[in-house]
Write a structure and sequence with these properties.
Largest sheet: 8 strands, mixed
CATH topology of the largest domain: Fumarylacetoacetate hydrolase, domain 2
Number of helices: 11
CATH superfamily of the largest domain: Fumarylacetoacetase-like, C-terminal domain
Mean pLDDT: 96
C-alpha cells in the first residue's frame, strides 16, 4: 500500500482520477485527497489563483505570505467539524499522481560526511577519504531537469561506456536515498541568498531517489564529474511537504571541524538540520534506515552556496542532499562495499547492484506536534531492461 503523508504534514501534490482526468492540485489527508481548487472555491475564493492550474507552479511562485495563509486555512478546515464537512474529498486509492511542479533546474549535492567517507574509502583506498575541499563547501553538480520523474515511473536501465570504453547496459545500477528541496520564490541574478532567507525561497521538501549507473559514472567522471551515469532518471515523491510542517523536526547540525566562510557559517543562525528518518526497501525488504539529522551540510547552506556566485533561483528549482548515509548507508555501493560484500535479502537472494525487475521504495518520517511522527510519503521505482 502506498504510504501517504499524515494530517500533520498536509502536503501538496497534483492528481487526476478516471472520472475526472484533468490534473489539479490536492492536499493529502489520511487516505483521502482534498480537491484543492474545489475546496478554495467553496471556502476561500481569495486563494483561487494560487491553487489553479495543472501543477503547483502558481502556489510555489506566490511566496511565503500565501503559503502561510493557505496552510492556516487548511488547518482550520481539517480540524473544525463544520468546515471539514464541506471539504471535497477524493479517495487516494482512486487518484493518479503526477509530477507536482515544473522542474526548472536540478542540482544534486554531496552533503553526507558518512557517504563521502565511505565512497572515498571504496574508490581511493589508502588515501584520505574526503577531498581537501569537502569540509569547506557543499560539493554539488548540475543534473538534468528533464529527467526528473514522479514516483511510480519505471526506470529503464541506462546504457553507456563502461571502464575500458566498452559500450553496453550498466552492470552497476544503484540508488541514492536523498531529501529534495523545492524552490518557490525566485531570486535576482547577481544577488546571493543568505542563510537567513532559506525559508523565504524554499517551499518544501520531497523524497528523492537519484538513480546512478556506477560503472558508467566511473569511466566518465574525470575531469568534469557526473554526466550520463546520473542524468537518465531522478525519481521524486508526488507529495511536497511544506517547510512549516517540519518545525518540530528542526535540529542543530553536527559540529563543524573546519571554520566556515561567512556565507556558510550557521553557528549563530537558526538551525536547519532536520530529523528526517528514511527507510529503503528493496523488493519489499528493508535494507537500510538512513538518518538525515547528522548531515554535515544543511539545506540552508546548500542554497547559500548554490547562489553565492550570483546564480539566480527560478520557481521550480530542485536541489537535493545527495545520498544520506548517517545511521546506515543510502546506496547499494556502500551496502555491498562496491560488490565485495553482496547484500543478502530475507528471501535468500543477494544483491550488489540492482537487477531488472527490482523495485525500490524510499519512505520517511519526521517528528510532528506532540512528538507524533508525520509521514513524508514515498518514492518508488521499478527497473526495466535496457532499451539498447
Amino acid at each position: 500500500m502506498t504510504a501517504l503523508p499524515g494530517i500533520g504534514a498536509l502536503p501538496y501534490g497534483v492528481f487526476s482520477t478516471a472520472d475526472d482526468p484533468h490534473r489539479r492540485t490536492g492536499v493529502a489527508l489520511g487516505d483521502q485527497i482534498i480537491d484543492l481548487p474545489a475546496a478554495v472555491r467553496r471556502l476561500d475564493p481569495s486563494l483561487a489563483a494560487a491553487v489553479a492550474g495543472p501543477t503547483l507552479d502558481a502556489l510555489l511562485a506566490a511566496g511565503p505570505a500565501t503559503w502561510s495563509a493557505l496552510r492556516a486555512s487548511l488547518i482550520t478546515w481539517v480540524t473544525d467539524e463544520a468546515h471539514r464537512e464541506l471539504l471535497p474529498l477524493v479517495p487516494a486509492a482512486d487518484a493518479v499522481m503526477h509530477l507536482p511542479f515544473t522542474v526548472a533546474d536540478y542540482v544534486d549535492f554531496y552533503a553526507s560526511e558518512q557517504h563521502a567517507t565511505n565512497l572515498g574509502r571504496i574508490l581511493r583506498p589508502g588515501q584520505e577519504p574526503l577531498t581537501p575541499n569537502w569540509k569547506h563547501l557543499p560539493i554539488g553538480y548540475h543534473g538534468r531537469a528533464g529527467t526528473v520523474v514522479v514516483s511510480g515511473t519505471d526506470i529503464v536501465r541506462p546504457s553507456g561506456q563502461r571502464p575500458g570504453g566498452v559500450f553496453g547496459a550498466t552492470q552497476r545500477l544503484d540508488i541514492e536515498a536523498e531529501l529534495g528541496f523545492v524552490v518557490g520564490t525566485p531570486s535576482t541574478l547577481g544577488q546571493p541568498v543568505p542563510l537567513t532567507a532559506f525559508d523565504q525561497h524554499v517551499f518544501g521538501v520531497c523524497l528523492v531517489n537519484d538513480w546512478s549507473a556506477r560503472d558508467i559514472q566511473a569511466f566518465e567522471y574525470v575531469p568534469l564529474g557526473p554526466f550520463l551515469g546520473k542524468s537518465f532518471a531522478t525519481s521524486v515523491s508526488p507529495w511536497i511537504v511544506p517547510l512549516a510542517a517540519l518545525d518540530h523536526a528542526r535540529v542543530a547540525p553536527p559540529v563543524r571541524e573546519v571554520p566556515l566562510a561567512p556565507y556558510l557559517d550557521d553557528e549563530k543562525a537558526e538551525p536547519w538540520g532536520l530529523d528526517v528518518r528514511l527507510e529503503v526497501r528493496l523488493n519489499g525488504h528493508v535494507v537500510s534506515s538512513p538518518l538525515f539529522a547528522g548531515m554535515y551540510w544543511t539545506g540552508a547552506q546548500m542554497l547559500a552556496h548554490l547562489t553565492v556566485n550570483g546564480a539566480s533561483l527560478r520557481t521550480g528549482d530542485l536541489f537535493a542532499s545527495g545520498t544520506i548515509s548517517g545511521g546506515s548507508p543510502g546506496s547499494l555501493i556502500e551496502l555491498s562495499w562496491n560488490g565485495r560484500e553482496p547484500l543478502r535479502l530475507p528471501d535468500g537472494s543477494t544483491r550488489s547492484f540492482l537487477e531488472d525487475g527490482d523495485e525500490v521504495v524510499i519512505s520517511a518520517t519526521a517528528p510532528g506536534p506532540d512528538g507524533t511522527p508525520i509521514l513524508l510519503g514515498e518514492v518508488r521505482g521499478r527497473v526495466t531492461p535496457a532499451a539498447l
